[in-house]
C-alpha cells in the first residue's frame, strides 16, 4: 500500500525549464489551474444574465461577496474595502483549493508549505509596505514599542513584538498547511484501515473505519472552509494593523 | 488543533523513518526541487484569478449592486414623493372641503336671512291687508248695523202686524212713527 504521504507527491506533467529554473507543469499546477477555472466559471456563470433581482447562482456569488465585504468592514473598516478584490480572491482561492482537494485522487495544493508560505510571505511583505508607506518608517517602528510601557520593560517587550511580527507569515502558512496535510494524511490512514481490517475480517471489520472516514470527511470539509476563513480574517487583521497601527 | 499540529510535526520529523519506508523520501512538501515550479504556478494562477476578479468580475458585481441600490433608492424616493403628494392632496381636499362647508353654511345663513326678510315682508303685507280688510269689514258691519237699526221699527211693525193677523185673524195697520216711538221708549 502507498504511503499516506504519497498523495502529496509532486508529479511533473509537462517538464519546463527557464534559465536553469524548473517551472514544470505539475499536478500541483494543474490543481491550481482547476481551482481558478472553477472559481471563474462559478462567477462567470453566476454573473451571466445578472439582474437587479438575483438568480440562485447570482445570490450565491453575492452571498460570498457580502461575506468577505462584511469581514473586511468588521475587522478593518471602510478603509479596507480597497483590498476587497485581493481578500475575495484569496479566500475563494484557498477555499476552492481546499474543497477540491477533498475529491478522491485530486491534489490539495494548500497542503504544501511552500505554497502557503509564499502567499503568507507576500501578505507579510504587502502589509509591511502598506504600513510604512502610510505612516512612515519611524511610526512603523514605534509599532513594536507600545506607548505607556516603562522603559525597562521595553527591553523585553520590543524583541517579543518583533518576533511575533516576524512569525506572522510562519504561523499563517503553517496553520493552513498543517491542517490540510494532517487532515488528508489522517483520511488516508483511516482509508488504509478500511482495506486492512476489511480484508482480515471478511469486510465486517471495515465498517467501523468507513463510518469514521465518512465522519472525518465531513469534518475535513468544515476545516477546509474554516481554514480559508481563518487565513482571510487574519489577513484582514494584519491589514488593519498596517492601516491603523495600534 | 493541537493534535493536528502534533501529528504534522510527528510526520515532519519521523516521516522518513515511519512512513517513507518505501524509499519515497518522507514528506514531499520538504523537497526543494519542486519549490520553484510551485511558486511560479502559484504566482501565475493567483495573478490570473486576482486580475480577472479585480478588473472584470467584482466591478460587474458592484455595478449590479449599485444599480440595485440606485433602483431601490429611486423607488423609495418615488414612494416618498407620492406620499408627500398624497399628503398635499389630502390637505388640499380638507382645505377645499372646509371652504366648501364654510361657504355652504354662509349661503344657508344668507338664504335664511333673506327668507326671514321676505317672510317678514310677506307677514307685514298680510297683516296690512288683514288690517285693511278688518277695517273694511268693521265699516261694513257698522253700516249694516246702522241699516239694521234703521229697519228695526219697520221689521218689528211688520212682525207684530203679522203676529196680530195670525192670532186674531184680522189685518191691522199700524203707524210706523208710533212704532218708532215705542221702540225708542224701550
Number of helices of chain B: 3
Strand order of the largest sheet of chain A: 1-4
| Count of helical stretches of chain A | 8
The separation of the N and C termini of chain B measures 154 Å
Low-confidence stretches of chain A: none
Give the domain tally of chain A. 1
* Strand residue percentage of chain B: under 5%
Poorly predicted runs of chain B: 15-23
The description of the largest β-sheet of chain B is: none
Commentary on this structure:
The complex is a heterodimer of chains A (246) and B (186). By secondary structure, chain A is mainly alpha-helical. Chain A has one domain (10-244). Helix content of chain A is 71%, strand content 4%. Chain A starts with 11 loop residues before the first strand and ends with a helix. By secondary structure, chain B is an all-alpha fold. Chain B is 87% helix and 0% strand. Chain B has three helices and no strands. In chain B, helix 2 (35-168) packs across helix 3. Chain B is rod-shaped and about 185 Å long. Chain B starts with a helix and ends with a helix. In chain B, 11% of the residues are buried. Classes of the chains: A mainly alpha (246), B mainly alpha (186). The interface between A and B is large, with 59 and 46 residues.
In short:
The complex is a heterodimer of chains A (246) and B (186). With 246 residues, chain A is mainly alpha-helical.
Question: What are the defining features of this structure?
Answer:
heterodimer; A: two-stranded antiparallel sheet; B: 186 residues; mainly alpha; 3 helices
